[in-house]
Design goal:
Blueprint (H helix, E strand, L loop, with lengths): L1 H27 L4 H16 L7 H23 L13 H9 L12 H7 L3 H17 L8 H31 L16 H8 L2 H20 L8 H24 L6 H23 L7 H26 L2 H24 L1
Length: 345
C-alpha cells in the first residue's frame, strides 16, 4: 500500500503540472486546431498515467477523473467550450480543480437555506449512507446463508453508495479550499420515472454534463441537417451511449488489466437503444399518455437492475472487485493505525 501511495502522489503531481501547462496554452493559443494540437500530448498522457496505479479505489478513481472527465474537459477547452471555458478570467487553482475533480459550479447558486438544502444532501444524509455501506460490508460475512440474488443486490447498493460518498468527498476538497458552490453528483436515481430521467437527470450528473456538449450536441447538429429536427435526437442519443460504452470499457481495463469482453458495451448500447425508443415513443404520443410514477419508477429501476446483473456486473466481478476492495479497506485501516501509533509515541 505504501508503494501505491507513492505512485498516487507522483501521478497526481504530474497531473497538476500537466494542467498548469494546459492553462498556459489557453492563454497563448486561440481556440481551435492549434490549441487542440498543443493539448493533445496531455490527453494522451492522461490515458497512460492511470496504468501506474493498481488498486481499485486509487486507480479506479484516478482513471475516471483523469482519463475520462479531465480529457473530455480538455477537448472542449480546446474549442473554448465546457466548464474550463465558462469564465475567461478563471484562476489557475480553479482551472485545476474544475479539470481534475467531478464538480460543476452552479450558474445560479441557491440564495436561501431552504433552496440549498433542497439541492444538496445534508451531512446526516451522507452519514446514513456510510452506515449503510458498513452494514452491507458486514452482511457479506453471511454470504453462505444468503441467496445469490440478494448478494448481487447488496453489491449494487455497495457500488452506488460508495460512488456517492467518494464523489462527495472528492468534490468537498475544492468546495472547501476555493469556496465553490457545487452541483450534486447524484439526484436520487432510485426515484427515476424513466430511462431518460435516470440517465439524463439523476445518475452521475457530471458525466451527463460533459457528454452533452462533447458528443450529444455535435451529433444533434450533424443529424439535424439529414433528418427531421423531431427525430434528430435519436441518433445523437445512440452516439452518446456509444462513447460512454467505450470509456467504460477503458475504465474497466484499468481496473482489471484484462482483455475486454464487450459486455459493458452491450449494456450501454442496449440502454441507448432503449432510451432512443422511449424518446421516440414519447414524441409519437405527444404527451397524450403517460404511466403514473408508482408504475414507471419500479419498471425503470427493475430494467436498470436486470440489465446490470446481466451485462454490467459480470466484468466487474471478474476483476475480483469485491475481494480487492476488502483487501484495500484492510490496508487503509492498518495504515491509519500505524499513523495513530506514530503520533502517540
Amino acid at each position: 500500500m505504501e508503494g501505491e501511495m507513492k505512485n498516487f502522489a507522483k501521478v497526481w503531481l504530474s497531473v497538476v503540472l500537466s494542467l498548469c501547462y494546459c492553462y498556459s496554452i489557453g492563454k497563448i493559443f486561440p481556440k481551435g486546431k492549434i490549441r487542440l494540437l498543443a493539448i493533445l500530448p496531455v490527453i494522451c498522457f492522461f490515458l497512460i498515467v492511470p496504468l501506474h496505479l493498481t488498486t481499485m479505489h486509487l486507480g479506479g478513481i484516478t482513471a475516471f477523473l483523469i482519463a475520462w472527465l479531465a480529457n473530455f474537459k480538455l477537448l472542449l477547452f480546446s474549442f473554448d467550450q465546457g466548464p474550463l471555458s465558462s469564465d475567461p478570467l478563471i484562476s489557475l487553482p480553479r482551472f485545476i480543480a474544475l479539470a481534475s475533480f467531478p464538480i460543476k459550479i452552479q450558474q445560479h447558486p441557491p440564495v436561501t437555506a431552504e433552496k440549498r438544502q433542497k439541492g444538496h444532501k445534508s451531512p446526516l444524509n451522507y452519514t446514513i449512507r456510510v452506515l449503510l455501506v458498513a452494514l452491507v460490508v458486514r452482511l457479506y460475512d453471511y454470504g453462505d446463508y444468503l441467496h445469490p440474488t440478494v448478494i448481487t443486490i447488496m453489491f449494487c447498493l455497495h457500488i452506488y453508495f460508495s460512488l456517492e460518498i467518494i464523489f462527495a468527498l472528492v468534490a468537498a476538497l475544492p468546495q472547501t479550499l476555493l469556496g465553490m458552490e457545487l452541483e450534486p453528483q447524484f439526484n436520487e436515481p432510485y426515484l427515476a420515472t424513466s430511462l431518460q430521467d435516470f440517465w439524463g437527470r439523476r445518475w452521475n450528473l457530471m458525466v451527463t454534463s460533459i457528454l452533452r456538449p462533447a458528443v450529444y450536441d455535435p451529433f444533434l447538429r450533424l443529424t439535424t441537417g439529414v433528418i427531421r429536427r423531431t427525430w434528430a435526437p435519436l441518433p445523437a442519443v445512440l452516439a452518446t451511449f456509444a462513447v460512454s460504452a467505450v470509456m467504460h470499457e477503458i475504465i474497466f481495463y484499468y481496473l482489471g488489466r484484462v482483455r475486454p469482453t464487450w459486455e459493458i458495451t452491450c449494456f450501454f448500447m442496449l440502454h441507448g437503444v432503449s432510451l432512443a425508443l422511449e424518446v421516440g415513443l414519447k414524441k409519437a404520443l405527444k404527451g397524450r399518455w403517460r404511466l403514473p410514477a408508482l408504475v414507471s419508477t419500479p419498471l425503470t429501476i427493475a430494467y436498470v437492475l436486470v440489465t446490470g446483473f446481466w451485462l454490467f456486473l459480470p466484468p466487474l466481478l471478474r476483476c475480483n472487485a469485491l475481494n480487492r476492495a476488502f483487501d484495500e479497506y484492510g490496508a487503509v485501516s492498518s495504515f491509519a493505525k500505524n499513523v495513530v501509533r506514530i503520533f502517540r509515541s
